[in-house]
Amino acid sequence: MTQSIDTMLARLLGPRGFTTDADTVTPWLTDWRGRYHGAARAMLSPADTSELAETVRLCAAHQIALVPQGGNTGMAAGATPDSKGDAMLLSLRRLDTIDTSRIADGFVECGAGVILERLHTVLADQGARFPLSLGAKGSATIGGLVATNAGGTQVLRHGNMRALVAGIEAVMADGTVLDERAPLKKDNRGYALRDLIVGSEGTLAIVSRVVLRTSPAIIDRATAWVGVASADAAYRLLRALDGQREQLEQFEIIPDLALESVLGHVAGTRAPLAGRHAWHVIVELVRERPDQREPREQLENALAKSIEAGLVENAAIASSGREEAEFWRIRESISETERAHGPALQHDVSVPVADMPRFIAETSARVEDQFPGTTALAFGHLGDGNVHFHVRAPEDAVAERWHDECGEAISDMVYDMVDSFAGSISAEHGIGRAKLRDLSRHASPARLASLTAIKRALDPHNILNPGALIPAEGSNT
Amino acid sequence: MTQSIDTMLARLLGPRGFTTDADTVTPWLTDWRGRYHGAARAMLSPADTSELAETVRLCAAHQIALVPQGGNTGMAAGATPDSKGDAMLLSLRRLDTIDTSRIADGFVECGAGVILERLHTVLADQGARFPLSLGAKGSATIGGLVATNAGGTQVLRHGNMRALVAGIEAVMADGTVLDERAPLKKDNRGYALRDLIVGSEGTLAIVSRVVLRTSPAIIDRATAWVGVASADAAYRLLRALDGQREQLEQFEIIPDLALESVLGHVAGTRAPLAGRHAWHVIVELVRERPDQREPREQLENALAKSIEAGLVENAAIASSGREEAEFWRIRESISETERAHGPALQHDVSVPVADMPRFIAETSARVEDQFPGTTALAFGHLGDGNVHFHVRAPEDAVAERWHDECGEAISDMVYDMVDSFAGSISAEHGIGRAKLRDLSRHASPARLASLTAIKRALDPHNILNPGALIPAEGSNT
């Protein structure tokens, strides 16, 4: 039996679609952050939906686990098999077709394996764009972004991946195909299966193709670096821009400590403003249609008013594309800088937007008070109520020992604060395998029971990404 | 046992919350369209979430079915128990609190029993609005709108109910409470339970409270009645308004036949334009913020250009609120006029927006050709790819006999056309009990199997609205 399934899959998928070659497979068995190392019986790479469906059907019949994987850039080890080596690694990377025939209606159809950056390029050639981007865009696939309901800096205006998926095709756990690619604005034929599958991390179905909403290409933009006294002032600036919401593309906050660290760590960076400010904001307004207002003029007016009102201490609008890129380079270097700085704990959390300034202030104070020598640092997507909340170890800490001794206690303190704000312990990174313990501890009994029940219902033999997202009781691995 | 559950519920809920009085209960046992008549063991009306949770817990323990009900204005008999009289009718109407404390952040919290019109009034007093309305607003409750993922004429800009629910509280089938009311823009703690519960028609959980997104009150608006030569011209007019999308609040299409019928049936109505046109459009642009463009000027310019381009035959912009109301009175009288006109079949269907003109033309031609004497009539939400597709009986048809002889065949022809456009046989009305047969016939095996599996997973004893939404195999009634 175990022989025959491998043979059947090898015959079905051919040499490009079935391999056990260690040199080929091994690079895909460690997660993006290098913390999880798995093993696989083989790597399967179906060439189209029909091969994928037959693959799932065969594996279901033999109760062989499948761990789906796109670009393997996830932050929560959701695409790494366990170390037993029983599971098949299921690469979706060959499902890489792009169909732009509906582009005039604002839609593009993509295979799960399409790399985000390639989609950007293809759409740019057609005068359109897909308004979601992230650091790993050169490797991340559309299927992975869908499976993890990815976010990023443009969620503010365009929503996360779930809001951008207009239609979906997915292979269910028994190998049947759910083809709901038609982009219907209204559809009440029972439960929202599309929304359910988006963000389910390959545990309910394997996404094979999606129809995505596109936006018009950007005609021009204006980007400002803004110095403010507090995260609360940053929030009030965001609200002062309510009138510009339809053109407000990005709004990111950066504490002074993060800026200072980037300036010290990344060669060629320089402070955008002359003076010191406790907090910094990058604001971007865009124009997508000729009849929209000129972004630069709007931004100048809004910032002038905010300076007058005492909300903003100082601001600089980028005078060139180069200067814009310099602003964004600082923002995008924070994660790397923090990793280089020394041991730290990262949390990707959200609370209601209006509560975020208070959350940052109170959580930072509590952590630094209870764990002397630590430094809290929150940066990111204020407009989504989502920050990356890092806690740096004391200067003299030894990485591994500090993690072992304080890691859980500090994270639990951060997450307890999140709970007290009715927030989320995973805003955009998902659960995968890395946050299972945190989910078990911080999700409500009603949520945990519902997740487990739905998983069992749609994947009764637990063959789709076992060990990911669903805490142990619901997993048979 | 059967005695004791009634006694326990009566004690728990008190005289306002438990009644078997026929005069009180009977009016709620017939559906809105008067086609389904049910029976109930008692009517339960919990006063708050905790009474509701305990009610569900008790009924779950005794495997007593609960049929949840709001204003009983659904179009698909989703809130009418069957005629056996075993089930409890569960009224959510006493859960009628409104909390406006987050109104400055754009949110309002409502109990499931809040009547839509009351919410409109309360928000208007605060300079805000809830951008969803429908004919039954004086009776329809927020809980019912959430359970059916209601639509209406403002979905174009604001989305349907699922897009407007930012947070939810629901009682699961075992009586545990899922409290996810916090309006989080980003949350990846596993499956999208909120989106799953919205539109589940009370079959997965009982919605007790929701946090809804609000919009700013409208400062001014401009409404035009537009005559065009075809549904395709109407679609091209919609696309010509792409530049006004952020202020385009409503865009409805009306065929000439529907207009003529309304003018003949409803006293005091008059044709908005002097000449005859094959199709009519009502367009509404609004301004919510002082810095947005003046709607009237925008609409005048856009229509002038469209007349010049030969897209629009003629147009009139309402010169007063009275005239605006006259335009909308025509639109809102279509359903009533069609009911009065004679026997007809109604279908609430959607296809991808761009395909709708072709769908209307091809489906009308096919139905009228195959069923001589019938007249097809499509009107409604073109911008959502959603029309109400009516088929009038031949002049000499006898209502009941015609329904019996041709009803299923005509509806199947319409729905087969919907299938061929990859559309939905229920765009905004849901499935309830009235469309179960159609769902069984026209949903894919993967969708049907998933619906049934999810239902069994979250309501294993089938006590939540049994007989609604899930075709027979998944129901034990």
TrEMBL record, chains A, B:
Keywords: FAD, Flavoprotein
Record flagged with keyword RNA-binding: no
UniProt source species: Flavisphingopyxis soli
Name assigned to this protein: FAD-binding oxidoreductase
GO molecular function: catalytic activity; FAD binding
GO BP annotations listed: respiratory electron transport chain
Entries under Pfam families matching the protein: FAD-oxidase_C (PF02913), FAD_binding_4 (PF01565)
Residue ranges of domain FAD-binding PCMH-type in the record: 36-217
